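Hi V.,

Quick status before I head out on leave. The structure for the redesign project is tokenized and pasted below; the design run finished overnight.
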């Protein structure tokens, strides 16, 4: 029993030494391992050689494209359409039946002016058609007068203005056009825009 404390002291010292060794092993940092590759000529050549780009594959055509066939140009003949077929209301001047331009009248004389026109349109003229004042001197004092009789396409018609010559002497001009029942206003000439005109000279009556 006297050796028991000595034995316990030896065991305690042994355990303390073992714990200290293990603690130092844990706290000591691990060594850093460095890898040095062999400096061979093949390895150095591999490092020195630049990286080459990978060539892109191109899709080369296997055959040239077939050209499209050239189609022949088709020419269509367009039938000629006359102005009569396109225009409902159209007039052609035929002649001055009376009172040519520059006729002399005295104040108060009776004037009967007549134009001869042909219906060159596709619509018949009825008494609903009018002769309307366009510009100049209005001998009648009214805006319009109805045609006296109808005229089928291709027929001629005499259109007359009757009035008394004005009193002041001088030269007078008056211009008129036609108007259909739909309100279309037309004259004569190639474009249907030329009005019908009358031009008279008023002079004093000679002394008896």
């Amino acid at each position: 029993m006297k050796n028991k404390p000595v034995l316990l002291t030896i065991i305690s010292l042994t355990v303390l030494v073992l714990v200290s060794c293990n603690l130092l092993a844990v706290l000591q940092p691990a060594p850093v391992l460095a890898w040095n590759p062999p400096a061979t000529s093949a390895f150095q050549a591999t490092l020195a050689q630049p990286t080459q780009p990978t060539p892109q594959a191109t899709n080369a055509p296997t055959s040239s494209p077939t050209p499209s066939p050239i189609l022949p140009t088709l020419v269509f003949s367009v039938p000629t359409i006359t102005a009569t077929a396109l225009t409902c209301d159209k007039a052609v001047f035929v002649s001055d039946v009376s009172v040519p331009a520059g006729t002399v009248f005295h104040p108060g004389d009776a004037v009967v002016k007549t134009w001869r026109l042909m219906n060159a349109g596709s619509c018949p003229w009825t008494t609903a058609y009018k002769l309307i004042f366009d510009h100049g001197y209005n001998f009648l004092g009214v805006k319009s007068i109805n045609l006296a009789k109808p005229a089928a396409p291709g027929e001629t018609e005499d259109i007359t203005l009757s009035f008394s010559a004005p009193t002041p002497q001088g030269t007078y001009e008056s211009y008129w056009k036609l108007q259909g029942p739909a309100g279309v206003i037309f004259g004569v000439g190639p474009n249907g825009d030329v009005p019908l005109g009358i031009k008279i000279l008023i002079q004093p009556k000679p002394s008896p």
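Above is the designed sequence. The chain has three helices and nine strands.

G. will cover questions while I'm gone.

Best,
W.
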